[in-house]
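Take our chain:
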Amino acid sequence: MIPQDAARLLHAYLDGELDPANSRALEAELARSAELRTALERLRAQSESIRALADYHAAPAALRARLGAEIGEAGGVRGSWTRAWRGAAALAAGAAAGVLLALWLLRPAADAGLARELVESHVRATLGGRLYDVASSDQHTVKPWLSARLPYSPPVADFSQHGFELVGARLDFAAGRRVAVLVYQRRRHMIDAYVWPQAEAPAVRAGERDGFNVEPVAHDGMRFVLVSDLNRNELDDLARLIAAAQ
């Protein structure tokens, strides 16, 4: 059974409208409840389907002509009231459609919501001193540790020779599921590389959010999303290294 309060918050969480305290509380509930995670993924899929399939059609000319003729044929007081009522209804419908369209256009895109979620996760891990659960630069230590705790095995590589040192990994929660996070260090900058299967991963666009750079990259059937305060050019360098890793 999904907790009623948690279920009520799913829509706001999906749209990135929850405050940090409620977001953390809901994420904790999501981590405990597979049923709640399934509900979130169902809502996310519905939202993406509406966005992808929604279409708008103008009324056919024949229909517009018929309606115009019906309005023109109405006479007397009754016809006046009918025309007035129809005019008011049309205005109300137009106003409602305008409000709904404005709300739709102003709502955050799905990928923007996920980018916000990953940046907040990176900040929590940094400020909370929990950047990694396993501290190691050895991919043969990090990869088995993650694989034993997830239903997939993320590719792991150390790029120390290029100035990006693998320092560890952790498990985190993003996009309604537990995901692997590889942690790299470039000088004094920490970089979180969130990794999950590409087929199950919502798209995220590259950009900047709240002073942090976000950079997606795909490799070996996985989607990586890099989050760091490192400058974009250097973060792009790491993305290229990941994409070309053997």
